[in-house]
Design a protein that fits this description.
single chain
């Protein structure tokens, strides 16, 4: 699949990853010996039925959760066993996040939320970063909202702010969890085109968890998970091809649970 042993050309990778919740008879294995990598400069969609382990995989790859066993790297840095301070610094400087729940700071206006990664890092945006932020704000139609607080925005507007914040520092790697889940189709398409450009034109690596075959069709590569394992690794797919594969994966997962 990927050269996951050396990490060559990979923005993130995991080897022999297992994640178990609970213990004894009540334990649930969310990931089962997964070895996979996210290639540099590529837009990867991670799909699978509910309970397939896709969000758990993303959270461990991003250093937001720890595996039960196995190893994880961001670039050439192994993050399994890294202390909290070093992990926080690594994420802040090299990784962007877009969550379905937005995770905006309610007391800050839009401008301050977008600039939060810089404030946390104790610096101001460079000229190039400021220009990138202006372009992102304009593309996502947020110019008139910069002084508003999150509660004054629609869900779609909040998600757009979260996406600008994630891309503002130009991170090597962006993790997106259902980034279009709360957006109308037009805004969702704009967001997906932004993510595509971030990988295609700026060489950023995008890993997106999604249920939506149309969203996944914008990706260069689609990973399908089922029962905590990678069951398929496909290059760019049409929405119909993705839907058909998702249906097969769901049927197989239902059969194995029966």
């Amino acid at each position: 699949m990927d050269n996951t042993t050396s990490g060559s050309g990979l923005a993130a990778r995991v080897t022999h990853l297992t994640k178990t919740y609970g213990s004894g008879d009540g334990s649930v294995r969310a990931l089962d010996d997964v070895t996979v990598g996210i290639r540099r400069g590529e837009f990867t969609a991670i799909m699978g039925p509910s309970g397939s382990g896709k969000s758990t995989l993303m959270h461990i790859m991003a250093g937001l959760d720890e595996p039960t066993s196995g190893r994880a790297w961001i670039g050439d840095t192994e993050i399994t066993g890294l202390d909290d301070q070093a992990l926080t610094l690594l994420r802040r400087r090299r990784v962007g996040f877009v969550f379905q729940a937005f995770n905006l700071v309610p007391t800050l206006d839009v401008r301050a939320n977008i600039l939060l990664p810089f404030d946390l890092d104790g610096r101001r945006p460079t000229v190039a970063e400021s220009e990138r932020i202006r372009n992102l704000v304009a593309t996502l139609g947020l110019e008139e909202r910069l002084t508003h607080r999150p509660h004054e925005l629609s869900g779609g507007q909040q998600q757009r702010v979260a996406i600008v914040r994630a891309l503002a520092t130009g991170p090597d790697l962006v993790f997106a969890d259902e980034p279009t889940g709360n957006l109308d189709s037009r805004t969702g398409r704009e967001v997906l085109e932004l993510l595509s450009r971030a990988s295609g034109e700026r060489g950023q690596s995008i890993a997106m968890v999604t249920h939506d075959p149309i969203a996944a069709s914008h990706a260069d590569r689609v990973l399908f998970l089922g029962d905590g394992r990678v069951v398929a690794d496909k290059s760019r797919q049409t929405p119909d091809e993705i839907s058909a594969h998702m249906l097969r994966t769901e049927q197989e997962q239902a059969r194995s649970a029966a």
